[in-house]
Amino acid sequence: MKRKLALTTLSLLALAVLASCGQKTKESSVAATSAKAEESSAETEKATEKANETKAEGKLAIVATSEDYKKLFDEFTKDTGIETELLSMSSGEVLSKLKAEGGTPTADLWFGGGIDAFMSAKDSDLLEKIDLDAANDFASGYVDPDHYWYTKGVTVVGFIVNDEMLKTKNAEAPKSWDDLLNSAYKDEILMSNPAVSGTNYGVVNALLQKKGEEEGWKYFTALNDNVKYYSKRGGDPREKTAQGEVAIGITPMDKKTEKLATEQGCSLVYPEDGIPYVPEGVAVFKGAANAEAAKQFLNWLYNSEDHLKELAEIDGKNTIKVVLPKLSNVDLSFDTGLLMKEDLSLFGSQRDSILSKWETLAGSKNEA
Amino acid sequence: MKSFFSLKSIEENAGKRVEHSTLFSAVFFSLSIIFLTFPIFLFIVYPIFLLFWKAFQVENPGQLFQEISLRYKTAFFHSMESSFYSALISTGLAFFLSYGIRSTGKWQKRIALLLLSMSMVSPPFISSLSFITLYGRRGLITYRLLGLSFDPYHKWGVILMQSIHFACMNTLFFTNALEDFDGKLYDSGRDLGANAFFVLKDILLPLLSPAILASFFLSFLRGLSDFGTPIIIGGRYSTLATEIYLQIIGFSDFSKAAAMNILLLFPAFFSFLLYRMSMKKADDRNKEQKGKTGLRLDSKHWMNLPIQFLLFFFLLFQALQYASIFLYGFLRFNKKQIFFTWENMGSLFQYNLSTMGLSLLLAFTASVLGSFFAFLLTYFMERKMKRGKKLLDFALSLPYLLPGTCFGLAYILAFNKAPLKLTGTVWIMLFSLLFRQMPLGSRLAGTALSQSPKNLELAARDLGAKPSMVFFQIILPGILPSFFSSVYLQFSQGLTTAGAIIFLISAKYKVLVYTLFDAINRGDYAVASLISGIMILLSLAFSLLLGRVKSLVSRRGVGK
């Protein structure tokens, strides 16, 4: 008796769950009819959007690379009265989260992160098209031709070098990308997996563009011999170099790297034969509850040189000048001639093929 | 009460028992089962099913699986290899550690337990950072002190770190089991002339097998799904869990990640079957235990010396690592020179520390509710359910099988639309914490139950006790130590683990782990260390509080 009852209830439950699963995987129209039968699916979508808006209390939710930007957003709140909430997340995480949310993002604005993630998000139809007032001021390549994403600066790439470690190997610090092939550096170089690190994807793509397909891949095959392993965290190369676990790290050259280098007595090298760089993206999520407020913020930012200068101060670099050459109140601290020539439009389209080729090449460094 | 012992009343009560078992009991039972299993379906089976389903939403699922099993053959093998060794070593280590704790003096025991509860708090990233600072190629201890330069970036580095980490939690299984242990058996073995070693081998080990099995099984699962350790210390050594992480972070390829996770199901299921089978044997053996006499281990045997040494070094190792976390928060580095400073304390307050409140609230709620739920469900499952027991038990273990990021994604997939819209709310965070640690609670409950005297329960029921009375007055007192362990573990895990929750937080609701990550993202390692220190102190405070509650409860004497 007991057993029978328990079994029937269990199987009923299982059925109910299965049924709801089936519903989920079908088109949204089914879900809509079950939610509110009398409304058409489009109307329901609007209704839920509205509901979200009231739930969000009009606060603009931002995903950024760090909470450093809070100052900037506070300024925006002071000027406009629109309140903001900030969350920091890596671009890989943002992309996965967005895809899982299936068109119901929990944030509105995406502020910073390697441009390859933004390109991929656009291709997956996860971004909202927005026309900014300043859209025409952007240098070519630094704004999506269809206006799905914009940029706010570039990340440049170089080396962090632990001189003490190199001394034990009797080796000089590398000055260029070609220097890295020196056999004295065997197992002393750390680089992040380009699939995880937008910066290192930039390195691979830029060097391939510079050297040409064939020579480029030859270079990475040779470099592979010296690389200890490819880390799955973007911050590993600089952290492990600073700790003396390896001698050379290929790393984004930003405030954090500079701080770490001064603290731990490491030196920084901007490669002589060209500095790869990756634009940092900015975009509004598709289906965002506060898309209008997000757009308002971007106009607030890009329409004012003062606000842009403040952004540059937070970032600790003036690379916004590369993005918006018209800017008059910030100057670049380095010669743009040192930057590699990159066709940014290839970044998105080549990603899959480059990464899969790279995976075969680096296979022996990743025992999986 | 006096009629309790008269034959007549037993007969009467026996009659009653049959009466309400036909009606009341049946209703009570099936209601309980619905009440208890429904959340398991909704918050474990359903989200995981949705994620796994992604593997079949591609054009040719067969081809996908074929490609993956070829491509990740090595990673799969590595997963099995490292998890097996870590489970084996951590279980063995935990057994000797708890034996050492049990046989040591009173205040040493207190210190040891305090250090152990501290070691169970493992702030993500910062613990491995301090490990490398102390034991890396230029580690303070290995290089500066001992002049060694050894490279931990390989298989054994992973296994070592996992073993040490898992051992802390596993020790709890054994300390609880030893606490519930029927000392009479040990004493009689000793009285009959067996020395401490043989008693350990012939009496202690076999009777502790539920704890051994549970800790081995859980560690194996945790090893399979642990992606953090291999990423940090594995170097070229990569496991399936790290490759899954790579697929999610680098490619957002859910289908591939899901298929790879399904691959992990096989060893997990196999180990689960082995676990259930051996558990059944162990249960039969333990049926007769009464567990009323405390266990007094022989502290004079030669064997004690190496065990005490092991315990000492293990605790020293942990103490050094945690001291370095605290210390790091008060240091300032400049050009390799180290200064002591209070500065970092100041910059700590520039961070968003309001996350602490929500973190505490979530960890507390999830730990108490989760443990209570896990214990109740496990009791029903083990003692009342006749069929579907294994299936339910496996479902309960599933959350540990998924790498944290996958678990978080599964939740987003499941709860992003009305009527189950939970994304962006506190609830999704609470439920994920609550159910993520379900395997731990249920395993602790299972071990405790297998040691609680079944005969006593049967006797009480024959005497006419209601099911609720049996649970609260007979079962509960026996499993209380394990219950408190479960609450503490869930609390410290809930406070510190990052994997799933990092996907579920929103700009509105953030937790302390997030503040820690933000500090790391800004390159502020000193502040990150201070935040880790806060986490450790909070957990320790909670463990002391629990200790108070525990002694209060046992002094009141529940069930007496």
TrEMBL record, chain A:
Example GO molecular function: thiamine binding
| Xref: Gene3D superfamilies | Periplasmic binding protein-like II
Q: Which terms are listed as keywords in the entry?
A: Signal
In the record, biological process GO terms are:
thiamine transport
Q: Where is the signal peptide?
A: 1-19
Q: Does the record bear Ribonucleoprotein in its keywords? A: no
Question: Signal as a keyword?
Answer: yes
Q: Where is this region: Disordered?
A: 26-53
Bias (Basic and acidic residues)? 36-53
Listed GO CC annotations: outer membrane-bounded periplasmic space
Q: Which residues cross the membrane?
A: none
Q: What is this protein called?
A: Iron(III) transport system substrate-binding protein
Species: Oribacterium sinus
